[in-house]
Design brief:
CATH class of the largest domain: Alpha Beta
Number of helices: 10
Helix content: 25-40%
Oligomer: single chain
Radius of gyration: 23 Å
Strand content: 15-25%
Signal peptide: 1-21
Shape: elongated
Keywords: Signal
CATH architecture of the largest domain: 3-Layer(aba) Sandwich
Order of helices and strands: HEHEHEHEEHHEHEHEEHH
Organism: Brevundimonas aurantiaca
Protein name: Accessory colonization factor AcfC
Structural class: alpha/beta
Pfam families: SBP_bac_11
């Protein structure tokens, strides 16, 4: 017996509903800079494994994702307090300054060529003549090298380091490419977490006191994210012991000194 048109319509409707029911929910949309992204992506995978909700992390220089974040961002993360303050302005009311949660700290370090062929032992070695130094001036590292060199109040150290800086990159991704492209660069002042994420690219030299500087990664739920049941729980997960362990694996300082 052939099915009636009404029966066919009912079957098609049921099939469409079933297909819709099997379609996974949109992922949680998370945006921020490249530095914290390896840890953030691992945290996103762990959260999805625990809850079943996918988390899509888009990271890199701000101009690459800012417009899309304005449209669908649920959570924004930063690479420093100054960077997050810039995001509050750039996102035009979509995040609240008072809702920002500082997460974990990272230390400024010196990256050197594998094997440290120049024997660089710390920041004071970069005050010596004829060093070729790469720094980042922007993307959460505004003034970082100056803060490090100037911590003792000795202007001669700031002058000495400035004389040796040959590249001022606008962001960490640009600095990474400069390091690859120019093998004459001896040292790269940046966060130590970059060496953890790129172990074959450089070795790390610790910056000792009194020159050590810390800045944080923070996160905030957007006004859009406030309507999503997983946005705040994902931020809570980042702050949990499991989240802290993930960030620690990527070189972040997650506890007391």
């Amino acid at each position: 017996m052939r099915p009636s048109a009404l029966t066919l319509a009912a079957l098609l409707s049921a099939t469409a509903l079933a297909a819709h029911a099997q379609t996974p929910a949109d992922p949680l949309h998370v945006y921020g800079p490249g530095g914290p992204s390896p840890a953030m992506r691992d945290a996103a995978k762990a959260y999805e494994a625990r809850t079943g909700r996918a988390v899509a992390v888009v990271a890199g220089p701000t101009p690459q994702w800012l417009d899309q974040a304005k449209a669908d961002g649920d959570l924004i993360f930063s690479g420093s307090e100054t960077m997050m303050t810039d995001f509050v302005s750039a996102l035009e009311g979509r995040i609240r300054a008072e809702a920002v949660e500082p997460l974990y700290l990272r230390t400024a370090s010196i990256l050197v060529r594998p094997g440290n062929p120049d024997g660089i032992g710390g920041l004071e070695d970069l005050f010596q003549p004829d060093r070729r130094v790469l720094v980042v001036n922007g993307a959460g590292q505004n003034g970082l090298w100056e803060d490090m060199a100037g911590r003792t109040g000795d202007i001669a150290k700031v002058r000495a380091l400035r004389r040796n800086i040959v590249v001022y990159a606008r962001n960490s991704a640009e600095a990474r490419q400069a390091w690859i492209d120019d093998p004459t660069l001896d040292a790269w002042i940046i966060w130590g977490i970059w060496q953890v994420a790129n172990p074959d690219l450089a070795d790390v030299v610790e910056v000792k006191e009194p020159y050590r500087i810390y800045r944080d990664a923070g996160a905030v739920v957007t006004e859009t994210g406030r309507q999503d049941a997983d946005a705040q729980p994902f931020l809570d997960f980042l702050k949990s012991d499991e989240g802290a362990a993930i960030f620690a694996r990527w070189g972040w300082r997650t506890g007391q000194p």
